[in-house]
Every structure is written in C-alpha cells, then in structure tokens.
Amino acid sequence: MNPQPTSIESEQDAPQVVNLEGVAVDHVGAELVRASQSSLNHVQADELDVRQSAVLQANATRLMAHEAGLGLVRAHEVQLRQSGVAVLVGEQVTLAGRSGVVMSSTASLGDGVAGLLAASKVSAEKVSAGILIARQVNGVVETRMNTRQVVAAGLIGGLVGGLVLLAGRLLFRKK
Predict the structure, then answer these.
(1) Among 47, 105, 116, 150, which is least packed by CB within 10 angstroms?
(2) What is the structure's pLDDT at 6?
(3) Are 125 and 139 in contact, with CB atoms under 8 Å apart?
(4) In 3D, which of 54, 41, 48, 83 has the Cα closest to residue 66?
(5) How far is the C-alpha of 92 from the C-alpha of 73, rounded, in Å?
C-alpha cells in the first residue's frame, strides 16, 4: 500500500515536535522533525533527524541523517552517516557517504566520495573528490582534478561557450 503525501504544518504556529514513521509527507515544518522510513518532499525545521528516509528539500539549523537519501539541503550544522546527498550547503558539515556538491565553511569527511567539495577548511580520511576547492586541507583527499586543471577547464569552457553564443548570433541574427 502506497501512502498518499500529506502536509504537516500550520501557517501561524508550527508544531514543536513531529515524529514520522513509514509515511509520505509533502510539507512539514516544526522545531524538531524526526523521520524514519519515510519520504519527505519539503522540510523546514530547527532540528531534523532522518533515518532510512528520503528527503527532497530540507532547510534546517541542524540536520542529522543515517542511511538516508537527500536532495537539496541547506543547514548550519550537518551530520550525515552512510547517507547520500545531491547538493549540500552548510556551515559545519560532517559527512560519511556519497555527495554530489558540498559547499561549507568547515567540512569533515570520512570514507566518502564527493563530486565537488568547496570549503574553507577540510578534514578528511579516505575521501575521493572530483573537484576540491579549499583553503586548508588536513588529511588525504584523492582528487580527479587539481586547482590548475579546474581553472583551465573553466577558462576553456567559458571560451567555447562564448564562441558558440557568438556564432549563434552571427548565423541567426535578423536581417
């Protein structure tokens, strides 16, 4: 049986605590949201604790996830264990799992993979990153592209994109 998505929030006062288990929810807003084996589309919370669940979009002050799949996450403090995230924007990030894009002030990664990791300070153990942009790195991070290669790829991509747009204007301009 597939549960139908529902909304849990009030325009005036969000509930203080929402506990969800085995449900599909479209919108939820509360001071504390706990979800287990659930599917959540949009979450707004001061604290979000997700276990074996999927979250499409989350805005939280503090987010903790274990064995979860997350889409777009915006949070001040993030702790992910054995989880995957597509896009993560946060201040203090602790990640053990897979991620697409991570942008933060401080990132601590252990046994994980990141497509793009951009942070002021990175602490890492057994981490593989496609592209790493960081001011300070402690630990070992295996990257597919170094800083020089990233700059060159950006310049070449911009040049090619500009030439394509210029050619399009010249070929398809109105007479």
Answers:
(1) 105
(2) 58
(3) yes
(4) 83
(5) 13
Q: Which helix (H) or strand (E) holds 150?
A: helix 147-172
Instruction: Output the pTM of the full model.
Output: 0.76
Per-residue model confidence as pLDDT tens digits over 82-138:
999 999 999 999 999 899 999 999 999 988 889 999 999 999 888 888 888 889 999
Residues in the chain: 175
Q: 122: how many CB neighbours lie within 10 A of its CB? A: 26
Angstrom CA distances, 4 to 1, 36, 50, stand at 9, 16, 19
Which helix (H) or strand (E) segment is 90 a member of? strand 69-145
C-alpha distances out from residue 148 to 84, 85, 104, 131, 142, Å: 28, 27, 21, 11, 15
- Is 12 a residue whose pLDDT tops 60? no
Mean pLDDT of 152-159: 92
Per the CB < 8 A criterion, the answer to whether 113 and 127 are in contact is yes
